[in-house]
Amino acid sequence: MTLPPQGHHVLLDLYGVEPAPLADVALIEATLTEAARRAGARVLGTQLHPFGPGQGVTGVLLLAESHISIHTWPEHGYAAVDVFMCGDAEAMAAASLIGARLRAERIEVRECLRGTAGAEGSDV
C-alpha cells in the first residue's frame, strides 16, 4: 500500500550568523514562534534552554502540526534547525523566515517527505 506524504521535513544548516543572535534566547523564541505562525501552525508548547551568557541555545516548539527545533553554536556562527510539519502547514515558509531573521550568510537546505511507505525510493 502506498501512503501519501504524511509530513514535510526541512533541515537547515545556517552558517555565517553573527554570534549575538545565536545566544539570545528571547530572539530565538520570537523567531521560532513567528516562523510557526507564518507557516500556519499552532504552537502547543515551547522549551528553550540557554547555556549561559554568550553561549548557545537549544530548544523546540511543539506544534499541533509537529515541531520546530534549533541548536546554536555562537562560537562557530552556526545553527542547526529542523522544521517538520504535516497537514496544511507550510514548512518551507517557516524555514525561510528563520534563515532570514538570523541573517545567515549561507543556508544549506535538505527536504524530505515523511511517511511515504511504498513509494518508489522510500526504503532505506
TrEMBL record:
Location of Pyruvic acid (Ser) modifications: S66
Entry's Gene Ontology BP terms: spermidine biosynthetic process
Domain of life: Bacteria
Keywords: Autocatalytic cleavage, Decarboxylase, Lyase, Polyamine biosynthesis, Pyruvate, S-adenosyl-L-methionine, Schiff base, Spermidine biosynthesis, Zymogen
Lineage: Bacteria, Pseudomonadati, Pseudomonadota, Betaproteobacteria, Nitrosomonadales
Protein name listed in UniProt: S-adenosylmethionine decarboxylase proenzyme
CC annotations in GO: cytosol
The enzyme's E.C. designation: 4.1.1.50
Cofactor: pyruvate
